[in-house]
Amino acid sequence: MKQLVVGTRGSALALVQADMVETLLAKAFPGRTITRKVITTTGDRRVDVPLSSVAKIEGVIDKGVFTKELEVALENGEIDLAVHSLKDVPTQLPEGFEIASVLERAPTGDILITKQTGGLDALKKGAKVATSSVRRQKMLTWIRPDLELVDIRGNVPTRLRKLAQLEDLDGILLAEAGLLRLGYDAYGEMKTEAGSVYGALIDPSTFLPAAGQGAVGIEIRSDDENTREAVEAINHTETFQRVRAERAFLDKLNAGCHTPVGVSTHLLGEKLIMEAIVFDEQGKGEPLEAEVAGKLTEPEETAKLLFQQLS
Fold first, then answer.
1. Which of 32, 49, 155, 261 is 20 to 30 A (C-alpha) from 4?
2. Could you confirm whether 151 is annotated as catalytic?
3. HSE-CB for 122 with a 13 A CA cutoff
4. Could you report the per-residue pLDDT of 36-92, keeping only the tens digit for each?
């Protein structure tokens, strides 16, 4: 039986997510050899500039800053599958590649981490909050226009340490899923070598996540039926349908990493509930908001309904 080579980025979170995939594959195929190849992507290498500028500087397709090198390795046969945080994956993949499987989704919220307890309400007027996400910047400005938003780069432990040690930084925003997967108490005290910081969930009913947030996606070559059979065996069907809807909505918007959009899905009985908030990229006017209900078995149709509500 052919071995499977798993490709992953080298950050602490990426390695944890690769572990999750490898553990499930080993359980599903106990006699199969599974190895790992760690690959440095453009987004990992260029931490000296804002994330929104990396693609333009490096000539990489929008949002492909965390996937391009993994896809090159896939194309060259160096790896059989690439493990991604799905929110980092472009909605339009290069020809010959596809997301064939996803793991069960983790919580999809955003966590505000500060030096004192109390979360968003406890932040003083004019407090400085850091995030590399355009979506988070727009949503936080919408809720608290008095705050000063700045960019930040680096992996999760690095960002937590920066918050603890920088006197002029009052908070940072990170994904709930990433913190939980790394073993942090996302809703309480988090210790760093520079001191303790404290997390609080921002109300997810008003602070909608990125498409695919909290989901781990597995990318393969479209013509690799051997790997497809393996990764489909560990696919989580409900998550797969939900993220298909979210990514289809982004595709209809022609949205990328520069588009401030939040989109959320959940099940209500047998219905797929989908809602979105879309901000103008230039910051003009009020954001557009809509919510629709569709079928879990028809994610693209539900995405189409949502797009029509906003058009």
1. 155
2. no
3. 15
4. 999 997 766 645 445 554 444 444 445 577 788 999 999 999 999 999 999 989 999
